[in-house]
Amino acid sequence: MSQGELSGLYVITDTTRFQREALVEAVSEAIHGGARIVQYRDKSADVTRRHNEAAALAELCRHHGRVFIVNDDVALATEVGADGVHLGREDAPLTDTRARFEAAGLDAIIGVSCYADRLRAERAAAEGADYLAFGAMFPSPTKPHAPGAPADVLSWAREHLGRPVCGIGGITATNVGDLMLHRPDMIAVISEVFAAPDIRAAAESLTRAMAAGMARPNSRTNHDPENP
Q1: Annotated catalytic residue: which of 41, 100, 183, 208?
Q2: What are the structural domains of the chain?
């Protein structure tokens, strides 16, 4: 895994909207719209459906050369040949997760949600996290009560921690341009893509807006897009 693979539009599945074949079709549309990383996130207890969906998405991502991540399930990630897992605050410790992958002979990607917690981010980086996610950058329809994170935590993490950085939470094609001033490697979204009437067009719009934002000079690195 190279750090160059961990860049661009990162989509997280919404299995409350799409399941089974419809989910695979939705993710395919997002990939064709420019998504470079896909995370399968499903908190249900339907083991069979989860396995079948993850396996189908893993195959889809392999076919298109995209990174495929499973949310907090090392066993499922290993079973379907995912590229790695993503861990949140309530999930297994990073070191234990790494040990489980290594025991299976796998060099997996492990991403960690850091919220706005710089100490958590420093600890995750020291323990070998492959990327760090921060948010919510803006009020999020998916997690309306999630605490906010200042945009400058992205540039701080890039400068001090030496890991790819991901912004998440309430990000849209309208506000992502200012967020790109802080040079995140990845932008993660759920509803901005999967709640859109045209998933491919929504992903394309975000991808264009991200590129346009990156093309702007970054002299305003300390600019907060929530307070222009």
Answers
A1: 41
A2: 3-215 (3.20.20.70)
